[in-house]
Structures are given as C-alpha cells and as structure tokens.
Specification:
Shape of chain B: globular
Order of helices and strands of chain B: EEHHHHH
Largest interface: A-B, 14 and 13 residues
Structural class of chain B: mainly alpha
Distance between the termini of chain B: 20 Å
Number of helices of chain B: 5
CATH topology of chain B: Arc Repressor Mutant, subunit A
Strand order of the largest sheet of chain B: 1-2
Largest sheet of chain B: 2 strands, antiparallel
Oligomer: heterodimer
Strand order of the largest sheet of chain A: 6-3-2-1-7
CATH superfamily of chain B: DsrC protein, C-terminal domain
Number of helices of chain A: 3
Structural class of chain A: alpha/beta
Shape of chain A: globular
Radius of gyration of chain B: 13 Å
C-alpha cells in the first residue's frame, strides 16, 4: 500500500488519575486498523504506564496495563521508552512488564516490543515522524 | 433494560451488552444468543470462549481482524476467515459474539 505515514503516539502522563493514558491506548488500537507505521513513545511520567504488577483495586478503576501486551496482535511492535525518564523516577527496564510480538516474517518468533532509548535517540525518533500525537 | 434468566435479572445497555461483566453465565449466553437469533453450536462456543479468554488476558475485546488472525492460528484457515465468522454470527463476529460472550462492545466498533 502506498501512502503509509509514520505515526508516533507520545505518552507523558501516569496511567491513572487522568484519562490521557487510556485514551491514547484506545486511539492506538482504533488507528491500528489503518495499516500505518505506528510507534509509541513513553517519557516523563508516561513510563509508569508500562510498569509491571499494577493493582488498581483500591482506586476502583480498571487496570488496563495488560492491554499493552495485545498491541503485537494489532501489528504495533515499537514501544520506545526513554532511559532518562526511567532513571529520574528510580526505575529500570526490569520494572517494566514484558511485551512481545510474533514476527510473521521470522517463523512467528517472539520478539520484544519495548526498546529503551536515550533522550537524544528519542529526539531523533520524533523528528523522523510524519505525525506526532501527544497525550 | 434487562435479560431474565433463571429467575435473575441481568441489566444490559440499549444495544444488549450486559452492564456488569461478572453477571455472565453460559445460560445467559444462550439467552442473549436467542435474542440475536443465533443458535449456539460448538463452533459458536469456540469463538465465544476464545473471546472470553482474550478479554481475561488483555482486558479488551479484540478487533475483528485480530480475532480472525488468532482463530486462524489456533483452529486453521478453514475457520480463520471472514466468511466462516459471518456464517456463525451474521451481524458481525465482534459485535454479536462479544455480546453473547458478555464483553463490552469492541474498542473502535461503532
């Protein structure tokens, strides 16, 4: 298909407390139907969206973090997480849930979707996009 | 609005999706299917059970193409295709099968 654009969804907010994180994920899932080149970026408090072991029982809202693991089914396989944002919050890659996709072109081998990048690399990723949507 | 099942009342929205996901039972599924004019066979149940498992794991109902791709992988190409799905659920596998499975309307499904 021609006319494929590079879309980047930028997630900067904590998963709960505001609706931004959930809305972003829903837009990604809906937008995935349009066969575009989609990436997700997680920076600032947005890195908390991918932490493992989330428990929302006490705040009475749905824990939607398992939904990130479905992104591979929607051919969304590039989740860039900024290293500096993790470090500033005392987090490391090991605090994030494991998210994989099955590579159709490599006998359905499971490959990691999350890629930790530096702030400088994130800037390059952003500048290489056709469309940047910020949440 | 509600379904009546074994003397219980189960609330649903204006399109027939149940409001409280934990209200779901197999009997209720049969009841919803009846109101959709769907006669539940083992083949229907395979799709409904798949949807429920998917929701359990990922907290969303999958989009139709995701559903079909996954069914194809698990049950083979003779079942993982649009034609087969629409034969089972004439008003759309996502819409009708999700309703019977007691799940919310799929994200992005209008």
């Amino acid at each position: 298909m021609s006319n494929i654009k590079k879309f980047l969804y930028v997630n900067r907010k904590a998963p709960y407390g505001t609706i931004y994180a959930l809305e972003s994920l829903e837009v990604v899932l809906i937008g995935a139907a349009f066969d575009q080149d989609v990436s997700l970026a997680f920076l600032d408090d947005g890195v908390f969206q991918l932490t493992k072991g989330q428990d929302t029982g006490a705040i009475g809202v749905k824990n939607f973090s398992p939904t990130f693991r479905a992104l591979g089914d929607y051919d969304v396989t590039k989740l860039f997480v900024e290293r500096e944002s993790l470090e500033e919050r005392g987090l490391s890659e090991g605090d994030l849930q494991e998210i994989v996709y099955e590579d159709e072109d490599d006998d359905w081998a499971e490959k990691p979707s999350i890629k930790i990048v530096s702030r400088a690399e994130m800037a390059d990723i952003m500048s290489g996009q056709d469309v940047v949507l910020s949440f | 609005m509600s379904y009546q099942i074994n003397g219980h009342t189960v609330e649903h929205d204006e399109e027939g999706y149940i409001t409280t996901l934990s209200d779901w039972t197999k009997d209720l599924a049969e009841e919803i299917a009846k109101s959709e004019n769907v006669d539940m066979t083992d083949e229907h149940w395979a799709v409904v059970n798949f949807l429920r498992d998917y929701y359990d794991e990922y907290q969303i109902a999958p989009a139709v193409r995701v559903l079909i791709k996954a069914i194809k992988k698990e049950m083979g190409p003779e079942k993982g295709n649009n034609k087969y799905m629409y034969e089972l659920f004439p008003y759309g596998p996502a819409k009708q099968a999700c309703k019977i499975a007691g799940l919310p309307k799929p994200t992005g499904c209008v």
